[in-house]
Design brief:
Strand content: 5-15%
Order of helices and strands: HHHHHEEEEHHHHHHEEEHHEEEHEEEHHH
Low-confidence stretches: none
Distance between the termini: 59 Å
Radius of gyration: 22 Å
Amino acid sequence: MTLPTRAERARAGAEARRRVPPAVHAGWRPAPDRPDPVALLQEQAATRVPQLVPIRYGRMLVSPFTFFRGAALPMAADLAPTPVSGIQTQLVGDAHLSNFGLFASPERNLLFDMNDFDETLPGPWEWDLARLVASLVVAARDRGFDRHRGQHAVHAAVHSYARHMAEYAGMRAIEVYYSRVDADAIEEYVDKRARPYLEETVKSAAHHDTFHELPKLTTIVDGRRIIVDLPPTIWHPEWADPGVPGEVLAAYRLTLQEDRRVLLDRYILEDVAVKVVGVGSVGLAALAVLFGGTDPDDPLLLQVKEAEASVLERFLARSTYANHGERVVAGQRRLQAASDVLLGWAKGRNGRHLYIRQLQDQKAGAVVAAMSHDDLTSWGELCAWALARGHARSGHPTEIAGYVGDGDELADALADFATAYADQTEIDHAALAAAARSGRIAAETGV
């Protein structure tokens, strides 16, 4: 058996470009039989915790951008009929700009990378890039930036993706695997006008860990640390006593590397509470799990999240994993440069598929409301860099680079697509607002 050479993969990418020119990504219009986006969201609500669904809708109604964050399924339905090159990689599945940020590696170095893998699945690399650039235009409008600035951010992101993919195409496979987007490199990379925002984000990540969260999430009662109830987003359900998750944690423990099992065994379970997080995942089971160590200043906070089938599975091949928690973990490990040392999976109550990780481990994400145009553009470039690295690590960078090329054709096409999709997002956001006013759905802020 022989593997295709780098030259052969480059030719395959160039042939895909001739067969499906990048310009086909321009001129997007909603299909005549496009599904009702509100109906799609209601379909998802059918399997979620009923009292949390109004919070999901409420968070999506804040702005077109927050709607976009929660609307991975409607966008997947819109992308499904679009032409693609046929080149596959592991998809993030929900690659908008708020799902990237700074995280601590196991060596405690800060890396810039993607974070949310609930929808990860193998598929066409174009879908991730299309979702990223559309998020940039929606966010630009959210900040009041004009059309030109939104399209400028898209061009910068696509060129960043292309430039870095070309670099990865020239590397040995092991070098691509070891490559990282670290904090030191990105401070040099971004436009100097965006460095103050980035420096604040780096500073925030360095201090945003378990010890930062502990005073906000916990208190001491009768000498024992417990999680504080802050309904409707943090509360103790009737079943959440320390004895219930034992089987789940035992199964989870077996998915960790042996040395990490030793680490987990140094802690004892103290408390469990529901903790609602995010936008799109609201309504799925999500728990904060508090462990205590040998000393009061040695806590551990884990997050347990439910994983359903990826929204992409309606349009692509079904996952090969029996447990969607394992699907999420496997996708994360393929795409991220360095994953949480306590990342694992299990099966929970009523057969729910779960994945588990540390609740906070030196992380900081995009604060869109605080971004200038230069900040947004630089953040988009970093997102595209991290996305290219993940795609190169899990796919074949030489093929993708052969398709993308080094000109403006793909950037121009995706800028047109992103503008059209931002228009559609505003229409869909208005439709959700109308559904709330009419009583078709119930929405609340969850504050």
